[in-house]
Amino acid sequence: MFKSFTPSVRRAVLAVTASIVFGVSCNSSNNGSQETAAAGASESALDPSAAVPEVKVRDAFAGLQATLKDTCTPGTCAYFLGRVHDELHRLDRAMKTDPKGAGHFPEPIALIKALDAEVGGDRSFENLKKHQTMLISTRDRINTWMQGHPDDYR
């Protein structure tokens, strides 16, 4: 029924969705001072919990598990690798903020830290593709670890 969207259409839809979610306005009117807006932005930048809602380990792990049957195919590879990367980091944040403490999840946190050291801050498709083997291996090893610790995500 629907034709598949081109990458440029997907990016445009993503940009519009992000602007709606994050409250970015295309309105040129200035209902408040720019200084006030900048101050509010810098305050929220200092408080990471203001920008990222708390996620439970159970929910973050479910997101990571949802990538297990996917693969890098010609039309979806960039999306797939980006999603695996994002789900790993969502799980990392959830583990570090879990009431049990980050020390309760030493191996998954160490695996993600090692991945980050290799990938660096470059989340581009080209870089994720270059590190695809390590990215997928990290996901699979964390999945195995979590399966051995079912009380941590149920």
Counting DSSP E segments of at least 2 residues, the number of strands comes to 0
Output mean pLDDT. 78
How many structural domains does the protein architecture include? Answer: 2
For the sheet with most strands, the description reads: none
Low-pLDDT residue spans:
24-46
Q: Give the N-terminus to C-terminus distance in angstroms.
A: 38 Å
State the oligomer.
Answer: single chain
How many helices? The count is 8
Q: Work out the radius of gyration.
A: 18 Å
- By helix and strand content, what is the structural category? mainly alpha
Which percent band covers the strand fraction? under 5%
* Percent in helix: 55-70%
Describe the structure.
This protein is an all-alpha fold and 154 residues long. It folds into 2 domains: 7-50, no CATH class; 57-152. The protein is 64% helix and 0% strand. The protein is built from 8 helices and no strands. Helix 4 runs antiparallel to helix 5. The longest helix is centred in the middle third of the chain and has 21 residues, at 77-97. Mean pLDDT is 78; it is low at 24-46. This is Lipoprotein. It comes from Embleya hyalina.
